[in-house]
Amino acid sequence: MTDQPQTETRRSPVERLFGGHPISVVLKLALVSLLVGFVMSIFGVDAQQIVRGAVELLRETLRDGAGIFRNLGGYILTGAALVVPIWLLIRLARKS
Questions:
Q1: What is the number of other CB atoms lying within 10 angstroms of the CB of residue 37?
Q2: What sign does the dihedral 77-82-88-90 (CA atoms) show?
């Protein structure tokens, strides 16, 4: 066991911002966006519905503080419909 100093490559500010090489990160984000978009289309959800839902959630919360708790179960199930399949795909992709 030798104590050799590990040479760290200095990353550019852009790489630090993106968390890796920008092209690689953009390609990964495009792939994940494609998968999420596909899953959302299967469930009949589009971006406008998500924005409308977020605005409605904010309105309910401001109008009735208990509104968020009343609908919490529904929000969890709706989110899980997207999150769990994506998580499963990521886990399966990492096993390969």
A1: 13
A2: negative
Structure tokens at 46: 């589009």
**Tens place of pLDDT per residue across the chain (96 aa):** 555 555 557 888 888 877 788 898 888 888 988 888 888 888 888 888 888 988 998 887 777 776 666 677 778 888 888 888 888 888 888 876
Q: How many helices (H) and strands (E) does the chain have?
A: 5, 0
For residue 76, CA distances in Å to 14, 30, 49, 57, 79 come to: 35, 25, 16, 13, 5
16 vs 19: CA distance, rounded Å: 5
Which residue is associated with the tokens 């503080």? 65
